[in-house]
């Protein structure tokens, strides 16, 4: 009788049996992100890779009675390749975080090499996987991954994502603090990129566009754009957002998995290789996309913008252009 109950509870349809690999799984984001994905019923294989401690994190999580098996890998024994083989979704939070006074771009010199190396391993071991990049500066690390995948002949624009979900979560939370609503029911569209002026929350498209006074709306936009700084300052040298980022990453990965599983109307904002402003030389842009069985199913436009938002987009594009070029040039210079 026990085995029958077990068989029923643990049986999984093909649409709910995915391998998710987390690279940088023992870090500040990696650990809670791994926990949240251990709780995701669509995950049957959770593979955790880090330079240190991944086996310990995996052993710890493996005692949680959900259906996934958890494997931990380090550099030894070809651990990176084994972590990635047959992965459906790869999340990359590997890299150094900011300290007070730093911009995300200040992380480029260290994180660009880390992300490039991990992208090469993805290209070699799981060329069809959806790759979700968390490591900063996202505006540049996503172009790095694209260039690596292109060089290896396996780039699929439908399956490369910069994770900007934390900007959406912040926008939803911060606007609810102003209007007194349930933050879980808010859904602010945040477009552009993931740093300062490139983060463009479209407040005019919310139901509160006429009710939030301009001064408060301006302060809200500033707060969303610099939400990361708030956490970096509060952590006072010990890193940047980890727990809220883990929630954001788990939500985004959950949506990618829902899309792969064929669920309908799965919508997330994400930074992707996008046609929206390609004619102006901006090759990547964050906007809402519908996710499907092949990854990105539909890229949505920005919708109707206020004059102020048009200006913000123009400003964002100038910074994005430089950030994207920096990532592409890095791969060219280090081929
Ligand atoms: P952390 O230092 O706590 O953890 C990073 C982990 O990466 C460490 O465990 C480290 O051992 C590992 N690592 C380093 N090089 C590696 C490699 N080559 N292979 C595998 N693992 C490697 O940092 P954190 O707080 O978890 O932040 C990680 C990154 O995420 C930072 O770049 C940070 O800026 C970024 N971040 C992005 C967002 C976002 O919204 N996209 C939000 C928060 C943080
Ligand atoms: C964030 O937005 O919290 C992250 O990008 C981390 C950071 O450096 O602010």
Describe what you observe in this structure.
- The chain has 11 helices and 11 strands.
- The model is unreliable at 1-13 (pLDDT under 50).
- Helix 2 (30-38) packs across helix 10, helix 5 (108-125) packs parallel to helix 6 (138-151) and helix 7 runs antiparallel to helix 8 (214-225).
- It has 2 domains: 2-162, NAD(P)-binding Rossmann-like Domain (Rossmann fold); 165-326, Lactate dehydrogenase/glycoside hydrolase, family 4, C-terminal (L-2-Hydroxyisocaproate Dehydrogenase, Chain A, domain 2, Alpha-Beta Complex), CATH 3.90.110.
- It starts with a helix and ends with a helix.
- It has helices spanning 2-10, 30-38, 54-61, 79-84, 108-125, 138-151, 165-179, 214-225, 227-235, 243-260, 307-333, and strands at residues 18-23, 43-49, 69-73, 89-92, 130-133, 160-162, 190-192, 199-201, 266-273, 284-292, 295-299.
- By secondary structure, it is of the alpha/beta class.
- The structure holds nicotinamide-adenine-dinucleotide and (2S)-2-hydroxybutanedioic acid.
- Substrate binds at residues 98, 104, 136, 170.
- Residues 164-330 form the Lactate/malate dehydrogenase C-terminal domain.
């Amino acid at each position: 009788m026990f085995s029958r109950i077990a068989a029923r509870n643990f049986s999984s349809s093909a649409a709910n049996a995915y391998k998710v690999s987390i690279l940088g799984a023992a870090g500040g984001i990696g650990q809670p992100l791994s926990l949240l994905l251990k709780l995701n019923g669509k995950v049957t294989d959770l593979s955790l890779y880090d330079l240190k401690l991944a086996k310990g994190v995996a052993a710890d999580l493996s005692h949680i009675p959900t259906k996934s098996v958890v494997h931990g890998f380090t550099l030894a024994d070809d651990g990176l390749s084994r972590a990635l083989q047959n992965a459906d979704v790869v999340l990359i939070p590997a890299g150094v975080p900011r300290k007070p006074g730093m911009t995300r771009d200040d992380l480029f010199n260290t994180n660009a090499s880390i992300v490039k190396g991990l992208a090469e391993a993805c290209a070699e071991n799981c060329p069809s996987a959806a790759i979700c990049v968390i490591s900063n500066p996202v505006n540049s690390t996503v172009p790095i991954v694209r260039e690596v995948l292109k060089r290896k002949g396996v780039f699929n624009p439908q399956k490369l994502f910069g994770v900007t979900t934390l900007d959406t979560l912040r926008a939803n939370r911060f606007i609810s603090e102003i209007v007194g609503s349930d933050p879980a029911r808010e859904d602010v569209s945040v477009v552009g990129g993931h740093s300062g002026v490139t983060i463009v929350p479209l407040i005019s498209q919310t139901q509160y566009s006429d009710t939030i006074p301009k001064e408060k709306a301006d302060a809200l936009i500033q707060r969303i754009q610099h939400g990361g700084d708030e956490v970096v300052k509060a952590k006072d040298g010990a890193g940047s957002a980890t727990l809220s980022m883990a929630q954001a990453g788990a939500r985004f990965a959950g949506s990618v998995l829902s899309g792969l599983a064929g669920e309908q109307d799965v919508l997330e904002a994400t930074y992707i290789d996008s046609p929206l402003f390609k004619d102006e030389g901006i090759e990547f842009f964050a906007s809402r996309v519908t996710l499907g069985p092949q990854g990105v199913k539909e890229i949505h436009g920005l919708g109707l913008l206020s004059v102020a938002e048009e200006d913000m987009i123009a400003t964002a594009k100038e910074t994005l252009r430089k950030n994207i070029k920096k990532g592409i040039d890095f791969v060219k210079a280090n081929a």
